[in-house]
Design brief:
Chain lengths: 294, 255, 297
């Protein structure tokens, strides 16, 4: 027990960040399941963070309802954004969600209620490690069940071939919107928890490069099962600590290792680190196939 | 009547792909749709499955108007199809291709599923057994774990049929189901189609191989340049003057 | 009014640099249908290596500029060989190519951090002699601005002539149009794709140098600020369209300075541009000058 306390005293903030990043990665995983490349989930997290933070700071709402609002508002925003945007495909969807992310960031810089460029301060520090990991566990369970449900199969079919999926009875647009909204709510939840972990949130916390990070977690870990994005987030969030542990201190090297890991995974492990775990499924396929389940 | 195509027209810009096409398909029939390249056969199937909205005319299936419905609504009325250019789920296994189609009819809504932990296990196993049986019907039970994209051409066509069947349809639209198949493979598919029709399913199929069509179909509609030349039984079609001309004319233009 | 005219002029100059950057971006997209997110990192390395050549090797900017541009082109070849060529046969190459270009962007950014340090740097004083011309009571134009536009125009004319007239240029257009057909025509598609990356990255590097000269400041993160702008510009102009990228760049540069001039704050600078981008995506996804792609049925 004492060891645990000591461990947490040293690595507490790392552990918290792994949990939050894993939650964010899972939020994107739901959208990626349907083949939708969204760069908007960081912005949804920002919406959740600001919503919950503003509610507790300015309106003195209790923590739980504030967190709930932090998940629900991004969900509503996802409906409004998704209705026009989800008709776009591939990089065009990525660009539109990216533009949305920039607009959210610029709004946060310019509005008064968000605290402008300096950010929103004085947020009560209520989130703790078990809340983060409870949320993560629930989200992971949710994603695992989702994969086996009607919606989950429908999303996978949409990713594989939209036209064929429609002809099998899948309401393409409704399913896509649903996935987009679920992703936004999970991201919002992560944002709301983050806001109450840190006293302070700023517009920089959820920019374009965070959105790209979420994508990287998914690719490095693998998008096919819930544990993929969790693994990816854990590894890459802890990587600076790990490197420091083995004596690599220089910033550029750490960054370069990050990039190299991503490159090696995309070139040689198209289904991410998770595919190292669930080998048995691929073994029965043709030899060529096992490396190619992209 | 089971399926009623009523004065369907379709144009793409200036091109009249279908003009006032009408015919009917009886329940349990194996109805062939033939005609030279570019006659409009695939266009008609695309209209029947909701991918195109016709420029004019109506389609009814079991008294329901299909021409205003979206593809997924039509599928939910029990209409399944295959594609001339094969549209499988390429990076899923054969089994998963069939399961994906199955899950849409087998229910499994998300919310109840969330609250009911491992009880779903038995149901999953039952569904999987059913999916394997469906693969067996097209002779792919040995390849359940193969990725769809690694199958041979003929196997892909058969997997597409299996996927269509997994959705439990009452009407199946097959766009050139045996194109590129070896003879014995095609004969297998013909047997399957006969068995399905005997079980009460209605089949509408496009095919260029005349011998295959004549031997299999109970009724045939001939299209040429977007117009119906005639609808009739195979022996009537064989001796129909305009049909012969349409096909001979095509041979000539190819030479 | 004079302030306004001055802003217009500034907007056109910076817009031409955005346009140059975006042309490289859009060239690769036009040929491969892939977004190369490492383009901004090449832009950074181009600018920083020209600076190094001018400062530490003591070269004149007129030699450092083409040398660093070539270097950026070589980075493009590397990029293609490592991040794109190995993925080309994959069915999801659009997606995996995007990811591997992100990976290379990170590696390149680490490289520029390691080689050139984290601090913002500037070209040594007197790298380019700057004359200031008075156009009106308070409207000025500098020789630097004029040279920048001259270089951009020169490069664009050269690129256009190259694509229209030369054999390699025609081959690039053929591959962009239809890769399979180009292969049947006996075109060395792989070589042409590599060459496209060379040109695209050289243009990106050149843009980085001009950007560094214009703002008199370079740093390992300078690519980050232009990355999003470049994306916005190529969408605005139509993905794959070269004149579209130039016009989009000018429009973006103008919208930036005008937003600042009208709102009086630089905070809203990007907001207008991204809202326009958003609207274009929804109303005309093919961009202002792009061709509408056929929809498959
Ligand atoms: N989406 C579309 N846009 C424009 N023209 C189309 C479209 N779909 C089909 N056509 C045209 O309509 C005509 C009929 O095409 P269709 O594919 O229905 O022919 P088909 O009878 O199936 O021929 P095949 O035997 O070669 O498959 C052709 O001229 C085709 O080019
Ligand atoms: Mg056809």
């Amino acid at each position: 027990m004492e060891h645990l306390v000591q461990f947490y005293a040293i690595y507490g903030s790392l552990i918290n960040f792994i949990g939050l990043n894993a939650l964010l990665a899972l939020s994107l995983n739901v959208t990626l399941a349907a083949g939708m490349l969204s760069l908007g989930n960081a912005a949804f997290a920002a919406l959740g963070a600001y919503t919950a933070g503003i509610l507790t700071v300015h309106y003195h709402l209790p923590f739980i309802p504030a967190i709930a609002a932090g998940a629900i508002l991004p969900g509503l925003a996802a409906v409004v954004l998704g209705l026009p945007v989800l008709r776009l495909k591939g990089v065009f969807l990525a660009m539109a969600t990216l533009a949305f992310g920039e607009v959210v960031r610029i709004a946060a810089v310019n509005l008064e209620i968000t605290g402008g460029a300096e950010g929103l301060t004085g947020i009560p520090n209520v989130t703790n490690v078990w809340m983060i990991y409870l949320a993560l566990a629930l989200a992971a369970y949710f994603v695992a069940v989702l994969r086996r449900s009607q919606l989950g199969w429908g999303l996978l079919s949409i990713r594989e071939d939209e036209t064929a999926a429609a002809c099998l009875g899948i309401p393409i647009f409704r399913y896509k919107l649903l996935a987009f909204v679920i992703g936004a709510m999970l991201a919002g939840l992560a944002g709301a928890l983050y806001a109450h972990l840190n006293y302070l949130i700023t517009p920089r916390d959820y920019g374009f490069f965070i959105a790209v990070d979420l994508l990287i977690y998914n690719i490095v870990g693998g998008t096919r099962a819930w544990y993929g994005p969790v693994m990816g987030a854990a590894l890459l969030t802890a990587l600076p600590e790990i490197l420091r542990g083995i004596g690599v201190a220089a910033g550029p090297i750490r960054m370069g290792v990050n990039g190299l890991i991503l490159l090696l995974v995309i070139l040689f492990l198209p289904n991410g680190l998770a595919s190292l775990i669930n080998r048995p499924r691929a073994v029965t396929a043709t030899p060529e196939a096992s490396g190619q389940r992209a | 009547m089971n399926l009623k195509v009523d004065t369907i027209s379709q144009h793409f810009g200036g091109l009249q792909a279908l003009s006032s096409v009408s015919f009917e398909v009886a329940p349990g029939a194996i109805h062939g749709l033939i005609g030279p390249n570019g006659a409009g056969k695939t266009t008609l199937i695309n209209i029947l499955s909701g991918l195109y909205r016709p420029s004019g005319g109506r389609v009814y299936y079991r008294q329901k108007a299909l021409h205003r419905l979206r593809p997924h609504q039509i599928a939910n009325l029990g209409v399944a199809r295959t594609f001339q250019n094969i549209r499988l789920f390429p990076s899923m296994t054969c089994l998963e291709n069939v399961q994906a189609a199955q899950h849409l009819i087998a229910g499994r809504p998300l919310l109840p599923q969330l609250l009911r932990l491992p009880a779903a296990g038995k149901e999953d196993r039952d569904l999987e057994a059913k999916a394997r049986a469906t693969l067996g019907r097209v002779g792919l039970d040995g390849k359940a774990a193969w990725l769809a994209k690694n199958l041979s051409y003929g196997e892909r066509r058969r997997l597409e049929i299996a996927r269509a069947l997994a959705a439990n349809p009452t009407l199946v639209l097959l766009d050139e189901p045996v194109a590129g198949m070896r003879r014995n493979e095609a004969a297998q598919v013909a047997d399957l189609v006969r068995a399905l029709a005997a079980g009460g399913m209605t089949i509408l199929l496009i095919e260029h191989n005349m011998a295959f069509v004549m031997a299999l179909c109970t009724m045939i509609t001939v299209l040429n340049f977007g117009q119906v030349i005639t609808t009739g039984r195979p022996e009537e079609i064989r001796s129909h003057r305009e049909v012969i001309e349409a096909y001979l004319g095509r041979e000539k233009s190819h030479a | 009014m004079n302030l306004f005219a001055q802003q217009l002029i500034n907007g056109l100059f910076i817009g031409s640099v955005y346009g140059l950057f975006a042309v490289g971006y859009t060239l690769v997209f036009g040929v491969l249908d892939i977004l190369n997110l490492a383009h901004a990192a090449v832009f950074t390395l181009g600018g920083l290596s020209a600076l190094w050549l001018a400062q530490h090797a003591g070269w004149s900017i007129w030699i450092a500029f083409p040398a660093a541009t070539m270097l950026a082109g070589l980075l493009g070849l590397l990029l293609n060989a490592v991040a794109f060529a190995p993925l080309r046969h994959r069915s999801d190459s659009q997606f995996s190519g995007l990811i591997s270009s992100i990976a290379m962007a990170i590696v390149f950014e680490a490289l520029s951090l390691g080689l050139f340090g984290a601090r913002a740097v500037r070209f040594p004083a007197g790298t380019v002699k700057v004359h200031i011309w008075q156009l009106g009571p308070s409207v000025t134009i500098t020789s630097l601005q004029v040279s920048i536009v001259a270089v951009v125009v020169l490069l664009m004319v050269a690129l256009t002539l190259f694509l229209k007239r030369s054999r390699a240029g025609k081959a690039i257009r053929a591959v962009a149009e239809n890769e399979r057909a180009a292969l049947l025509l006996g075109i060395d598609v792989r070589g042409i794709i590599a060459f496209t990356f060379f040109i695209s990255s050289a243009l990106g590097g050149a843009a980085g140098i001009l950007y560094g000269l214009y703002f008199d400041s370079l740093g390992p993160d300078m690519g980050r600020s232009i990355e999003l702008k470049g994306l916005a510009v190529i969408i605005l102009g139509g993905m794959g369209s070269i004149p579209g990228a130039i016009l989009g760049g000018l429009a973006f540069g103008l919208s930036e300075v005008l937003t600042v001039a009208i709102s009086g704050t630089s905070n809203l600078r990007d907001a207008v541009a991204f809202m326009v981008l958003f609207a274009i995506l929804l109303l005309r996804p093919s961009g202002l000058l792009g061709r509408a792609r056929m929809r498959e049925a």
